[in-house]
Amino acid sequence: MASVPIHQVDAFAAHPFAGNPAAVCILDAAAPEAWMRLVARQMNLAETAFLNPEGDGWRLRWFTPTIEMDLCGHATLAAAHVLWETGRLSPEATARFESRSGPLAAARRGEWIELDFPALGVEPVTAPAELLASLGVEAQFCGKTPYDYLIEVASEAVVRAAKPDFARLRRIESRGAIVTARASTPEYDFVSRFFAPAAGIDEDPVTGSAHCTLVPYWAERLGRTRLRARQVSARGGELLCGLAGDRVTMAGHAAPFVTGTIHVA
């Protein structure tokens, strides 16, 4: 029986039991997709990341318990943390990944881990009535990203109070829905929550890929390219964000939680 190391890390969190938990599985070579799907279903976290060496970096894939994702921030942050902590990368080295969304990178910035991701624009659309009804909110703005709907609401209080009908939201043709507003909490610029029941995740605690759209969206509205964000899920998470042309940076902490072994017959 072979064994494969697996790690669980709370991403965008300075301590365990906050942020977004991700599993990270480091492989010597690419594994069969069917096996990765089974592992992700067994781990039953928002994302399980699978890494294997490729060129001068790493091939990176992400799976929810039900589908493979095109882009995931928190599991990428967790993967970079594991590479450094296990000695597969030196502390000063940049973690470089190839993914379904192109090249990604992560670098240490003091106690923070900074991700370099693509910026994803949002096209204004008329808010589908069923979408707003399933979220239980009124939209100040509604747009469509390559993956999700983005809905700006009147206040942080509205974001925090949202109680979606996940059965109805699951029927919307989209990966998920981002609900956002300007922050009333002084230390942050904007807040958000992310709901993706169609992807097997009713509410994602902290969503890096959503900030690929949130950062350029709020940078334009607030007139600056350095932003501090808070995802106000029950677990919550903090991100230091930046916009540079067609790239977004998102920095967060990582808190290791579990290290173990998968036994493979």
Mind explaining what this structure looks like?
The protein has 265 residues and is of the alpha+beta class. The protein folds into 2 domains: 129 residues, Diaminopimelate Epimerase, Chain A, domain 1; 123 residues, Diaminopimelate Epimerase, Chain A, domain 1. Helices cover 21% and strands 43% of the residues. It has 6 helices and 18 strands. It has an 18-stranded mixed beta sheet that branches. It is globular and about 55 Å long. The termini are close together. The model has no long low-confidence stretch (mean pLDDT 96).
Task: Offer a quick outline of the entry.
By secondary structure, this protein is α+β, with helices and mostly antiparallel strands. It has six helices and 18 strands. It folds into two domains: 2-116 and 251-264, Diaminopimelate Epimerase, Chain A, domain 1; 123-245, Diaminopimelate Epimerase, Chain A, domain 1.
